[in-house]
Write a structure and sequence with these properties.
125 residues, mainly alpha, Arc Repressor Mutant, subunit A, 2 domains, three-stranded antiparallel beta sheet, 6 helices
Length: 125
């Protein structure tokens, strides 16, 4: 997250008036990301919600590229549970199921998404 005080923004746009455009684009992208995150939290199925949040944290939720490489996330299961609005025990169950299927690997405070494309397919079904 980036925070710029209003005085810093004014300094930037005083030097380059076109900077307003860049601030507008950044705001629009942030808004799109926030709306997508809210949409993911509205998914009723807890497995699909967890997958959607995993993909969003990995930066590939909206990505259309295939053959994605594994993605490492430094996050505890408790922090993930909070982000996904799920119970910690539910996250553990879902993660163990995904790990058994070869979709993710787990270690202390780390989740590696091994097969982002397979997770996307699970989410779409």
């Amino acid at each position: 997250m980036l925070h710029l005080p209003q005085s810093a923004i004014r300094e930037i746009v005083d030097l380059d008036p076109n900077a307003w455009r860049y601030f507008g684009v950044a705001a629009a992208l942030h808004f799109d990301s926030a709306i997508g995150a809210v949409g993911d939290l509205l998914i009723r199925d807890h497995v699909k919600r967890a997958i959607a949040v995993l993909l969003r944290l990995g930066g590939v939720r909206e990505c259309t590229q295939s053959d994605l490489l594994p993605i490492e996330l430094d996050i505890s299961q408790q922090d993930f549970a909070t982000m996904a609005n799920l119970a910690r025990t539910t996250v553990g169950t879902v993660f163990r199921m995904l790990a058994a299927a070869g979709q993710i690997s787990l270690s202390y405070r780390r989740v590696v998404i091994l097969a982002p494309d397979a997770l996307k397919a699970m989410l779409a079904s």
